[in-house]
Specification:
This protein is mainly α. 77% of the residues lie in helices and 3% in strands. The chain contains ten helices and two strands. Helix 7 packs across helix 8 and helix 8 runs antiparallel to helix 10. The protein is flat, with a radius of gyration of 25 Å. The model has no long low-confidence stretch (mean pLDDT 89).
């Protein structure tokens, strides 16, 4: 009697573990476990969930009129602060990175002093310093103070990313640009920075996501951003868990959307370079 060959199980299990369906099963199990833990903990606390009251703080739709709720209005303020801070932080980071790698000892010393001061002090203290010390002297508003503090903080970290990207470009690229008669500025603009930008895009994205999350600290100087609006609603309604979970979910959607947007840009740059 002919023996039937046995089917090896290890390759099948290996393919099963790497399949998207298995990843989704693990994700759903993890989500279900977290929800169970949350509900179990709330039951022990005696907390009464009132999710049905949350939508009115996002938006209302009455008599065909759409009205933004306080949470989405706060999100608009967060977008404004983050958007301006992103641009300003990039400018600060680029100038600091160029100063760090320049041949000027004074520029290098100033850049190093700024870098070490910002990186070794808490963002909250910097925010208070700009708002309570510099703002009265320079007649700055709350939003301007918040933008300056966030830009200076994130710019310090981003400058090291940009500097690393620039110095990673092979020396031959500099020599080729100089042999074509390009000056230093044209070499940076046409040869070095475009190549460095493709390399530093992922870490810069992480820094931008950090900026979105760090922007929650501006609520400490009474700016009605998303976090401050959440605090005000909780103080008024005592919907502690519902509101903070909603605020966290909004931040999560914003950061994931930003990451997806930059990933698309990264893929586009790779296709263009291919």
């Amino acid at each position: 009697m002919r023996k039937t060959p046995s089917i090896p199980m290890r390759p099948i299990l290996f393919r099963l573990k790497r399949s998207p369906a298995f990843a989704w099963v693990k994700f759903l199990l993890l989500g279900a476990s977290l929800i169970w833990l949350l509900l179990h903990g709330a039951r022990n606390l005696g907390y009464h969930w009132q999710w049905y009251r949350v939508p009115r703080y996002l938006f209302t739709w009455e008599d065909g009129v759409f009205t933004w709720g306080p949470l989405l209005k706060g999100l608009g303020v967060t977008f404004e602060i983050v958007g301006i801070s992103l641009v300003l932080a990039f400018v600060i980071a680029l100038l600091t990175a160029l100063a760090r790698i320049s041949s000027s000892a004074v520029a290098g010393l100033l850049a190093r002093l700024y870098l070490e001061t910002i990186r070794n002090t808490p963002l909250l203290i910097q925010l208070f310093f700009v708002y309570f010390v510099l703002s009265p002297i320079l007649d700055l508003g709350r939003v301007t103070a918040a933008v300056l503090a966030l830009s200076a903080f994130e710019g310090a970290y981003a400058s090291e990313i940009i500097r690393a990207g620039i110095v990673s470009i092979h020396r031959g690229q500099w020599e080729a640009a100089h042999s074509l008669g390009l000056g230093r500025l044209d070499t940076y603009r046409s040869v070095i920075l475009p190549q460095a930008f493709r390399r530093i895009l992922p870490p810069l994205t992480s820094q931008a996501i950090s900026l979105v999350k760090d922007s929650a600290l501006v609520s400490t100087i009474a700016i009605y951003d998303l976090t401050m609006q959440g605090q005000a609603i909780v103080a008024e309604t005592f919907l502690t868990f519902e509101i903070w979970f909603t605020v966290a979910a909004i931040y999560l959607v914003v950061t994931l959307s930003l990451a997806a947007l930059v990933k698309g840009l990264e893929n586009h740059l790779k296709e263009g370079a291919a």
